Amino acid sequence: MQHTDYEIMSQWLSTKEVLEFFGDVNAPFTLQQVKDKYEPRVNGEIPVVPHIVELDDKPIGFMQRYLIDDEQKESWGYPADFIIFGIDQFIGYPELFNKGVGTKMIKLFIEDIARDKEVNRIILDPEISNFRAIRAYEKCGFQKVKKIDSGTSWLMEYTINHH
Questions:
Q1: 3-state secondary structure string across the chain
Q2: Where would a tag sit more exposed on the chain, N or C end, judged by fewer CB atoms within 10 A?
Q3: What digits encode the pLDDT tens for the residues 75-115?
Q4: In CATH, what number is assigned to the domain containing residue 59?
Q5: 143-148 and 153-159 as β-strands: parallel, antiparallel, unpaired?
Q6: Taking the chain, what is the end-to-end CA distance rounded to the nearest angstrom?
């Protein structure tokens, strides 16, 4: 993601279908809010790495990765020495939903993260009602571990097997 991407992010984060599961439908993002939230990530000031997904050289979505900290690992029952990445993503255009695009972008992201031989797991935490995303994640090899956030989300994990 680059500084020139804030405009398109604010467009996506004002789309009802995107906000249904990423953000809040009643609180679309202004350009300034996008800048305030994502500029520190683009600048590398906080350890969340943002990416813009392109299809045929056209930006179509967003992905980010971040290391899960020790406190969070412990609360979910993971060993402290595990290296675990969390990922979040969305497709910005509803007309691209249900076409296998999300599955493909997640598989590529998994491959990229798995190049780091130290990583043990990749995790996601979709809302339980987000059936479309959960189906895509399962197609990519993620498995439901347990319900979290007072039972509103699934903790899903992908196990990386380094051969």
A1: CCHHHHHHHHHHCCCHHHHCCCCCCCCCCCHHHHHHHHHHHHCCCCCEEEEEEEECCEEEEEEEEEECCHHHHHHHCCCCCCCEEEEEEEECCHHHCCCCHHHHHHHHHHHHHHCCCCCCEEEECCECCCHHHHHHHHHCCCEEEEEECCCCEEEEEEECCCC
A2: C
A3: 999 999 999 999 999 999 999 999 999 999 999 999 999 99
A4: 3.40.630.30
A5: antiparallel
A6: 31
- Percentage with pLDDT > 90 across the chain: 87
Give the pLDDT mean for 43-53.
96
Q: How many domains does the chain have?
A: 1
Task: Report whether 108 contacts 114 (CB < 8 A).
Answer: no
Domain limits for position 150: 3-159
Q: In what order do the strands lie in the sheet with 153-159?
A: 48-55, 58-67, 84-91, 121-124, 153-159, 143-148
Question: Which amino acid is residue 156, in one-letter code?
Answer: M
pLDDT at 163 over 70: no
